[in-house]
Write the structure tokens for this entry.
Amino acid sequence: MTKILVVSEALGEPNHKRGIFHFTRELIRSLAGDGHQLTLVVETTRRYRKLRRRQQRTRLLPQDSRLIELLALYRFLDETDMNSPIMRGGLRRTVDWFKHKLKAATSLEFIIAFLRSVRLLPTSVKLIENRTEGLEYIPTDLRHLELFGDFLLEPGFYSYQDTSALTRLPPPRVDARDYDVILIDTPTRVAIKRHPSAKVICVVHDLLPITDLKLDDIATRLFLSRLLTSVHQADELAFVSNYSMNRFRALLPQYAHIPTRVVYPRTCFDVAEAPLAPVTTAVPARPSFVVIVSNEPRKNLAAVIRAFRKLPEADLIVIGYAGGANQARNQPKNVRFSGYVDEHEKVALIAGAHGLIMPSLAEGFGVPIIEAFAANTPVLCSDIAVFREVAGELADYFDPFSTESICASVRRVLAQQEQWRERIRERRTELAERFGHHTQARDLLSHRAAPEIAAAAAALSAAMVTFHSATAHGV
């Protein structure tokens, strides 16, 4: 049994459920299923302290009761408005960001994190055993937390790391000497104190904070600082796709000496019971398509909405926070915004749709694609290299800059529903092996030979050359 310390901003503080959250949640399920002992680094803040004090004031439980700590911890991690704006524009976003950082910087937890980083306070280990039998039930969105044996409480940990990056202060420190593996689920600015035999694995999802022109300078600076700190400590880098790994090698060749592997994101595949196509009735249901977005220009939602203006015969359901898109004037009547939905509702919407659309201009992987495959739902996606790697021949591709191309793809999929579903169903066992969470821990921790990794990378490089050549000739 391997003792693994998980450093995850997506899980260790109240956070929005985006791609990194999905990746780490499924990875935790896989690691726990294989019997590994897991500990999560959780940030404690002023808000957590307030919740804990409220529990202590009841005086029904002993002051040092671990149930008080767990109640406060679970409530703290559950405090997220999933439909609140994740990104704001212009001056308002800048002011909000500085107000949040100023509030965090004046907290006791932030001061403790700073004093530890400059070694004026020793790092201490405060573990809470995750025994949840005293809780009435665990909400669906928090059930992944049950898989951790312990929580390592670190004051102001994730909040301080970004401030330290912008101000060039030392990174927060964590004592990980009792662990065999330290898993960092995305580049994080942290100084790890570990045993010489322990391994640090850092997951890199993409390099979009560097290469996406629509992101601001602060995002780029934060990511570069996080990445630099992580790669200097990493014994191994894990990428979510061969595409992301090749981009990293091309842009940052000075780190070519660090061993790498590809660990695809996962989802739940039920091989034994492959979903069937929606049951037809005497009055056919109106066709619907699903798109899953966040408020980022690269998600290309506007192009899909424009396309559905020309597709009155079908509906579009937009899942996730869409920014101001849902408030635009003259919105097509066949476009519906659902906002954030819980996991079960999202699965149901994908399974009931005639297709899932992925119109992104850039991605590190594309988790909704495999979620659609798990539901046996046809996939329509941008003709970009990473989607070719993930979906192969099981998707209908379109030019993400052309509304006419998107419309043509929708009509093709509508006309060939049974063919697409049967094609996915025939490959279900293969898809489950590749994208089912039961194999993810193996891919992360197994000792893979370097030639195997090199062969996979070479295959993708050849595919990318072919793709760019075809694009250049207008194919």
